[in-house]
Write a structure and sequence with these properties.
single chain, mainly alpha, about 50 residues
Length: about 50
Amino acid sequence: MQTCEKIKIGWSFLDRVYQGSVSMMMSTLMRQNKIDEKEMEELKSMLDKM
């Protein structure tokens, strides 16, 4: 396996971990009523820009 391919696989894995963590955090905030719909959209927009 070439180095470039290994980097792509590693990046893909880290991206999936990050996205999963963000999804869990957002769903927990909503479930516990710690954030409303508008705040959720603002948070999602900020995170998407990262």
